[in-house]
What we know:
Layout: H1 2-28, E1 37-40, E2 55-56, E3 67-68, E4 85-89, E5 98-102, E6 112-115, H2 117-123, H3 131-148, H4 163-186, H5 188-192, E7 201-202, E8 207-208, E9 235-236, E10 243-244, H6 248-251
Parallel strand pairs: 1-6
Antiparallel strand pairs: 2-6, 3-4, 4-5, 7-8, 9-10
Amino acid sequence: MATSINFAKASVSILRLICTIALFAIFATPSLAKSIRMTIYDDGKSCPASCNAHVVFGESLNGTDFAHDPRTPKAPFNKCSIGSSCEICFDDKSPTSCMKAEYQGGGPHADTFDFTPNFYKENCPIASIPSQLKNQCAAFHKAAKPLVNKTNCIQNPGDTKCVAIIKTADTSQTTDLPLYDQCKKEGEAKFNRDRPIEEQRSNDCAYEQKGTGGPNSKGNRWKRLLPGACRTGTYVGKDGLDCCTGIVVADGPLGSECRNFYQ
Length: 263
């Protein structure tokens, strides 16, 4: 009987030791750095501040290690204010992953910095940008490589290869612009009230109500961005996903969306 009791006590001691080691391993191991995704967007006139060089991100990031008012470099952080400089960090462990960028509000999915084409245009050439952004710029430049030696029709609309392309894009934009302006003036509810669904608009009048985009390889359809929603000198892409800007480093990563504007 004594032998059984001693064996049971030994088993309990060993189990406690194993648990202690396991807990020590959990708490002693440094946590892995959390990283932020980078994306690019230009949804035309809906893009704030005329789509200048800025960033938008979800509210859950604002006031954290990843995004905060530069005047509070240590926690507790103040939140970034729209239209002001914001300290953004691409991971939560390295101070060298941080830089300042103009903040223009919320937008994308969680843990994502969504930058404008002008942000990449201004910052990619700077040698001192954080390595994460530098890698993203390199990936964008690689994606844009097929466009580099082609004629940029948005920047050179009078080129003989571009005249017909830009004329078609201008006509689409000019035709849709009065509808966009009317929708913005009346509001979507009133604008859509007596129209068939094919003519209705959504997302602050910038997108179609009935999704006719696609289908993609997964069979999904999407609401197209409409031509009148793009700013003058920019044009909606072939699949209605974004406005093509003529900024090569931004148009290239959009794949076939803007390829027609490069001949």
